[in-house]
Amino acid sequence: MVNKDVPGRTNERGYLRIATEEAFAPASLLDLYLKHARDPGLDDPGFKSLWGFYAASPSPRARFIIEGLKDLGEKRLRDMDATGIAHQVIALTAPGVQVFEPALATRLAIDANDMLADAVKAHPTRYTGMVAIAPQDPANAVKEMERGIRKLGFKAVILNGHTRGEYHDDPKFWSLFEAAEALNVPIYLHPNAPPKQMIQPFLEAGLDGAVYGFGVDTGLHMLRIICAGVFDRFPKLQFIIGHAGEALPYWLYRLDYMHAATLKSNRYPFMKQLSHPISHYLRNNIYITNSGVAWQPAIQFCQSVIGPERVMYAMDYPYQYVPEEVRFCDEMTIPDEHKKMFFQTNAERVFKLNTATL
User: In sequence order, what are the beta bridge partners of 311?
Assistant: First the structure.
């Protein structure tokens, strides 16, 4: 029976708070991350910088993150209750299994999905899962997507950035998009550290992580998928990107203008003429969460540019756990119907959640 006294369940403001980009990781996978990061033969400076630090650092921030990632039980639930979060949509943390060789990656994805499924089964009113996949093995990735959605009951697919330096606009990955469209589930394109071919200037300034590098790489990745014609080929396919749209809403006018101008100039013979301007795909095929951006100007701008029906709340737990940020979002001076869409009803629609059970 649902405990109606749990903070966030009965909300005097008239909405539930559903957080849509929340992370976990099995302890065994975190151990593998550390081992992988310490491999002297690994040629992946982004992974070494990120997980070489977080998997071993004794700093309070690193320890809080690691403990939060590993916990799918009482600690996570206490932190949700303390901030009034009714429900989390949970995904395997970046880079997921996408740094390992294909056979190992496929096995790790299955194990992680089984662990998350057990947690969702134990706490069905509090958690919803996203399917982790190993894109480096597309055929088995499609099988795991189908298992995760049809058997485990997950509601989305997590794609943790590039896979071993490869972006997913390459047609060899398009079977993943075909499967997601057929399954009628969104793909969450989550940041990863920039690949080795672009990361050095970020590393030199300490800007390779969430402060800037993540957003640059994810915005680039999303644009590559759009400009490759993925949504023309799969018009019903839906993606989700976080962090107030990885800056793409702010650039939308210029993206439309310069993409059209570049095509007219015939500068790049490989560039495709799309069926629509880039802005069309942002407004029809992409949802945005505010994960890590509890700031009304950015949230309101995304709503005004993309549409209030396409912007959702996320906390980015445990990477950004600042209880005051929930209040900041509660107190936004936006129309009440837009606020309920932001916190609750958009997530219900996108992830096919049954509010009556929350």
Answer: 288
| DSSP-H helix ranges across the chain | 27-37, 45-54, 60-70, 74-83, 102-122, 138-150, 174-183, 200-204, 213-227, 230-233, 252-265, 278-284, 296-306, 323-330, 336-340, 346-351
How many domains does the structure of the chain reveal? 1
Residues 6+ positions from 311 with CB-CB distance below 8 Å: 287, 288, 289, 290, 299, 302, 303, 341, 342, 346
322-342 tens-digit pLDDT: 999 999 999 999 999 999 999
- The answer to whether residue 356 scores a pLDDT higher than 80 is no
Backbone conformation region of residue 206, classed left if phi is above 0, alpha if psi is from -120 to 50, else beta: left
- 127-132/239-241 β-pairing: unpaired
Domain that holds residue 141: 18-351
Which CATH number is 347's domain given?
A: 3.20.20.140
Pairing of strands 311-312, 286-289: parallel
Query: How does pLDDT run across 13-62, given as a tens digit for each residue?
Result: 899 999 999 999 999 999 999 999 999 999 999 999 999 999 999 999 99
Question: Is residue 7 in a domain?
Answer: no
In a domain, 181, yes or no: yes
The 3-state DSSP class for residue 22 equals strand
13 CA to centre of own chain: 27
Q: Is 12 inside any structural domain?
A: no
Does some domain include residue 67? yes
